Amino acid sequence: IMSKDSPAWTPEKIKEIKDTIDVIKKRTQFLINVRSELEANVSPTYPDESTLRSLDSTLKRNTALIKKLKQINEENKASLISDIKQTNQTKYLSEVVSAICECSFKLNDVPAVIKVCSELHRKYSDFQKEFAPALFKNFRFGSPVNATPATSSSAPPSTPSTPAASASGTTATEDKDANRRRRVAMRLLVDSVANGILKSEGVGSGGAALLAICKQLSAMVQAMVAKEDQREGAILYLS
Question: N or C: which end of the chain has fewer CB atoms below 10 A?
């Protein structure tokens, strides 16, 4: 084993090792925070009725919050969580859930969405009951998400100014948007299971089957993370 005074211990090598240790420490703290949040989601402690009644439940404040929930991202996450803590969404919970489950945000915004959903899940016992079926609506294949059904079977033929419809009666643009939303919804579903927001109880047989698949995916990811943590832990110990 080389000593610190060995010629091999160059300043660059020492800096590299210190930087590696700092990265591992930050990752370890991140995983501790993730575990803490997971435990809070699995066994939430809901606020009592008097606490909820003391919060702002006005239509104006909650309408503004619902609009913001349609565009969750990392930049407005903290502001949204602060608004949720200051307001009472009991009467507007279905609208809150619908806004989130439109999945109009980007795929890389899902971690921020999970943080917001965790806050709502730990505040309202009915959140999962509302959230699960609203999210599952994104997986109704054959029709675009949030699309209005056709009202007549005698639609005019396609023209250069009218997008051609697919076999399901939707345009290519609508199909593309629906598929994008489904990808976002699937990521949100998997992460909701992994973070203890969604459980198989009370989501219906079809939803339970979908959750079972997500749990398998989550278990695989968690196993990979555990192996990586063991490797980094060994490096930290040896250094």
Answer: N
